[in-house]
Design goal:
The protein has about 350 residues and is of the alpha+beta class. The chain is built from 12 helices and 13 strands. It binds NADPH dihydro-nicotinamide-adenine-dinucleotide phosphate and pyrrole-2-carboxylate. The site of pyrrole-2-carboxylate has 9 residues, from helix 6.
Length: about 350
């Protein structure tokens, strides 16, 4: 570890390796109400987001995880129940626990089914997802599979043409293998901006670009505090993003048996922040499609995209951050690292 100073923002940072951060976060979760299994899965997930520069879903989320656990809203020791319900269908009752341990429990069966049937579905219900979605799908592509996942969250997005919020920020993530490099991965909220980024802007005192949200009177605003204080977000791309957000509600909640974003009431659990909803995965063995090597085909597509001038692929920013972090470590503000160590009960 080494200390340095981020001169642009005048924030003193300290450098920590990825395995050190995983272990620190594992201790934080363990000391704050999760089982060892859940602590390991969440720590890896959260540290991966921090490593890849997904800051709205890295260590920024720790206070929200811990206040949700402390409030009794989410069960950090839940044991997911995996059900084999069809040749290509697996279901998991996450039992009011986190979604990622539910995925981990069902993953071997899901992959086995995707490889035998060519396609398989995993429907997770009664789950809390408080993280980025790309860590859920990228590993499938690294195994040669195509994966799509959707998760709904909490009411804070006004459907296109409506007056009041109903949908969650409802991300969609997709991953596909490619022959010449890291998998193609995109992961995007169907709101104009993720709620986490609104919170980060509010904390920094920064304004947002136009078109992201409305204030409590329903009027357009660029002030993140006005959005968080009784206002709401807008879908990205008007009616198109709104339709995709509706689809996420249907697939992640309607189809799985999880709550719609508007269906749960956390008001009796002060401190609760993790949405209690559902998540859907569709995993495909792409080589069953044409019998050709799909990864070569996707590489050809990427090559042609580069030829016509698209330099930056979705996922590129993260992969670059990851490569840097794996060589140089991850810079974390000293104050945040100190707080994490306190929470983990370890010395600096
Ligand atoms: P962004 O708008 O930052 O990025 C969306 C996608 O577009 C990413 O795959 C990104 O790649 C790619 N991208 C960004 N800029 C470009 C560009 N110029 N050219 C090509 N591709 C580009 O993400 P969001 O703000 O929509 O979402 C942030 C995170 O919030 C996500 O991880 C999402 O899962 C999470 N989230 C989680 C929720 C939950 O309920 N758990 C709810 C809502 C959001 P890259 O990654 O390389 O930047
Ligand atoms: O950033 O919109 C968001 C979000 C919701 C739940 C987890 N992250």
């Amino acid at each position: 570890m080494s200390a340095s100073s981020d001169t642009a923002a005048h924030v003193e940072t300290q450098n920590i390796s990825f395995p050190e951060l995983v272990e620190l976060l594992r201790q934080v979760f363990l000391r704050n109400g999760t089982s060892p299994e859940v602590a390991s899965v969440l720590a890896e997930n959260c540290a991966s987001a921090e490593r890849d520069g997904s800051h709205s879903h890295g260590i920024f989320r720790i206070p929200g995880y811990l206040s949700s656990l402390a409030s009794g809203w989410v069960d950090g020791k839940a044991v997911p129940k995996v059900e084999d319900v069809g040749a290509a269908f697996t279901r998991v009752d996450a039992a009011n626990g986190f979604a990622q341990p539910a995925l981990a429990a069902a993953r071997p069966l899901l992959v086995e089914k995707a490889k035998s049937a060519g396609i398989a579905i995993l429907a997770i219900r009664s789950s809390h997802h408080f993280a980025a979605l790309w860590p859920d799908v990228e590993p499938f592509a690294r195994e040669g599979l195509v994966a799509l996942s959707v998760v709904n969250s909490m009411t804070c997005v006004v459907p296109h043409g409506a007056q009041r919020p109903l949908f969650g920020t409802n991300p969609i993530a997709f991953a596909a293998p490619r022959a010449g490099g890291d998998p193609i991965v995109f992961d995007l909220a169907t709101s104009a901006i993720a709620n986490g980024d609104v919170q980060i802007a509010a904390r920094k005192g920064a304004m947002l670009p136009p078109g992201m949200g409305v204030d409590r009177a329903g009027l357009p605003t660029e002030d993140p505090k006005a959005i968080l204080d009784g206002g709401a977000l807008l879908p990205f791309g008007g009616y198109k993003g709104s339709a995709l957000s509706m689809m996420v509600e249907l697939l992640a909640a309607g189809l799985t048996g999880g709550n719609f974003s508007f269906e749960f009431d956390w008001s009796k659990h002060p401190g609760a922040q993790t949405p209690w909803t559902g998540q859907l995965f569709i995993v495909i063995d792409p080589n069953k499609g044409s019998g050709q090597n799909f990864a070569e085909r996707s590489e050809e597509l990427v090559r042609r995209m580069h030829d016509v001038g698209q330099e930056r692929m979705p996922g590129d920013r993260r992969y670059l951050q990851r490569a840097k972090a794996l060589v140089h470590g991850i810079d974390i503000p000293v104050a945040e690292l100190t707080r994490l160590r306190e929470l983990a009960g370890v010395q600096g």
